[in-house]
Please model this.
Amino acid sequence: MTTETTTAHRTARFLPQLIKFGAVGAVGFGVNLVVFNVMLLIVLRNVEHRTIYATIIATVIAILTNWIGNRYWAFSGQRQDNAAREGVEFFAVSLVTGTGIPLLCVWVSHYLLGMVGPVADNISANVVGLAVGMLFRFALYRWWVFSPARAARVSAKAEKTTTTVVSAPEPANTTGSTLARTPDSGLVGD
Model:
């Protein structure tokens, strides 16, 4: 297989997955926006610190929506057998890249570059932070959470542990002793 064919084949698989990832992210953004405003303006309207609670609830529901969309559509051919482990890893990656990276961008903008103000904050958090976070998220989802190589290793390991080991037949007891026929239970207390 030539390098051009390999590259074209990889691009043909990569590009649709990237587009699906972007579409799932757009749906997640919409879910976050709707849930946040419903919580803020209707459900939690008389609750103190409602902005914090609305943000937490909207973020968790958006991450769950994104996990389902990525698991069953964008990365459907790569999803893992252990959905709980995959969900925890997805949630961790989403929190770190969705919150940590924008916070880091705001910190760099404020404290290293001296750019303060609402416009600088929005650009650093919601433009640069969102874009950099999205790149890291896609890479971590593709090559860690939904990694086909990792899934192959896990299933090979599971297959290896579930195969039956065939042992050699026990030698015949020619002495007639019952002690020789008694299985060894290991060390005392085991």
